[in-house]
Specification:
Layout: E1 4-8, E2 13-14, E3 50-55, E4 62-63, E5 68-72, E6 77-79, E7 88-96, H1 99-105, E8 110-113, E9 116-132, E10 135-139, E11 145-151, E12 157-163, E13 170-177, E14 179-180, H2 191-196, E15 203-204, E16 221-226, H3 232-239, E17 244-250, E18 254-260, E19 266-275, H4 276-307, E20 309-315, E21 319-327, E22 333-340, E23 351-356, E24 361-365, E25 370-375, E26 382-386, E27 391-395, E28 410-415, E29 417-422, H5 426-436
Helix pairs in contact: 1-5
């Protein structure tokens, strides 16, 4: 039977290492109308959930969107009353790998052991469920689903955990190793290096209508150079697809690029045309540097491709799972933290996260101030706050410099910068993360 891909929407499951079977003494869960999930995803963002249709009695192997497979036993499903399910069923699947994925998922990443809270360092997380005609189905007792998840984290071994959606607690299941994939990305792909080659932060890559400006006619204009330094907010806002731009100005004021952001705020930038001849000259001057960057990116991509693994597990129930290591800060520093969002918002409505990208760690913080705020000063860190209407504010790694080296337990106010980003997908977070670290 051919498996059909129905739609994309977010879902969640976290993983560990190698092919093992997880046992479960509990029976299939009953529907609880008062159930409140501990998973609180960020609203109004692009979803990444995928829905697959399979035959309940003879399910074929499902090829997952990001690589890997999902395989169910024959006659694997029952309804909420325990009756066998026949015919076509739908499998809702979602997986999370990047810090952006995990942030938007709303999945708690704390793990309590012997009364001590730890942070989880994810090597791949997923959630899946099943339904037929809008009604929940379950995996029958004695049956299982084999999950082979393609992980972008190449650490050889992770523990495997199952989450209680109601309490948000993680339960350790097993430890195993991952198998390297045969998939190899092309290290000669220079798309990232081309982006790195753009060295002038004040260049604005937009097309403007110049027909009203006689002195610009006949010029080979490839971009526009701002006469004042652009902030990170300016660059993000000008790159946004929701920002509307036009060229205005007079003989006295010169050329002005006027930008209307998604919130209807208007910003003006004095600009001058950036011509083809200048671009060619700059390209020649930067060629040696760009070649070096291309080589560095190629080496990085080779390492990433060589490190990708398939993490395999057999599970007896639908749910949320995670391949994870328990992370403890090597040199924890405590800060009595307060947060200045530089915006007229209620701090209670802010979703605040501490990210340590070198470890693939994300920690949900108390957005109103935190007496128990810990970070590792030896690592790269940043803070990302999601305000109402999904506007993004942030503190870069350099924003931690003033508190690094202080005695643990001192008070400090983290001042957030406006980014000009309105969050639509996890890619928005990952692109911005490059600026923060």
């Amino acid at each position: 039977m051919k498996i059909s891909l129905l739609l994309l929407i977010p879902a969640s499951v976290l993983l560990s290492c190698g092919s093992q079977e997880v046992t479960s003494s509990g029976s299939n869960p009953e529907v609880n109308e008062d159930f409140v999930s501990s998973i609180q995803p960020i609203q109004n963002v692009d979803n990444a959930q995928v829905v697959y249709r399979i035959d309940a009695q003879n399910p074929e192997e499902i090829q997952l969107k990001r690589g890997g497979t999902l395989v169910f036993d024959e006659d694997a499903f029952v309804d909420s009353d325990g009756n066998p399910v026949t015919g076509e069923v739908e499998i809702q699947w979602e997986e999370f790998h990047s810090l952006g994925d995990i942030m938007l998922s709303g999945i708690p990443m704390k793990y309590d052991s012997a009364g001590v809270a730890h942070n989880l360092e994810s090597g791949g997380m997923f959630t899946f469920s099943g339904s037929q005609n809008g009604n929940d189905i379950h995996i029958a007792k004695g049956k299982k689903a084999e999950v082979n998840l393609a992980s972008i984290q190449d650490t050889p071994c992770y523990n495997f955990y199952e989450m209680d959606k109601e309490s948000g607690d993680w339960k350790y299941e097993t430890t195993a190793t991952g198998d390297p994939t045969e998939e190899v990305e092309d290290p000669k792909d220079q798309s990232v290096a081309k982006e790195k080659g753009k060295t002038d932060p004040n260049l604005i890559d937009v097309t403007l209508d110049t027909r009203k400006f006689q002195h610009l006619q006949g010029m080979e204009i490839v971009a526009w150079r701002s006469k004042k330094n652009l902030t990170r907010f300016d660059r993000n806002m000008l790159k946004s697809s929701t920002t509307k731009v036009r060229l205005i100005g007079t003989a006295n004021t010169g050329l002005i690029l006027e930008a209307k952001a998604h919130d209807e705020e208007i910003y003006k930038y004095p600009v001058e045309p950036y011509l083809m001849d200048e671009a060619i000259a700059d390209t020649k001057a930067n060629r040696v540097k760009l070649d070096k960057e291309i080589e560095e990116v190629a080496e990085y991509m080779t390492e990433v491709a060589a490190g990708r693994v398939i993490r395999s597990i057999s599970v007896p129930n639908f749910g949320t799972y995670n391949w994870d290591c328990i992370h403890q800060f090597d040199e924890p520093q405590r800060v009595f933290a307060s947060f200045d969002y530089q915006s007229n918002v209620n701090p209670e409505l802010v979703s605040l996260f501490l990210l340590a990208p070198d470890r693939n760690i994300i920690i949900k913080c108390n957005s109103q101030g935190d007496n128990g705020f810990f970070f590792d000063p030896s690592e790269r860190n940043c803070l990302i706050g999601i305000l109402p209407n999904n506007r993004v504010v942030s503190v870069s790694n350099s924003g931690f410099d003033a508190v690094r080296g202080n005695e643990s337990g001192q008070a400090f106010t983290f001042k957030f910068e406006q980014t000009g980003i309105k969050l639509h997908s996890s890619e928005d977070i990952m692109n911005h993360l490059n600026d923060l670290i």
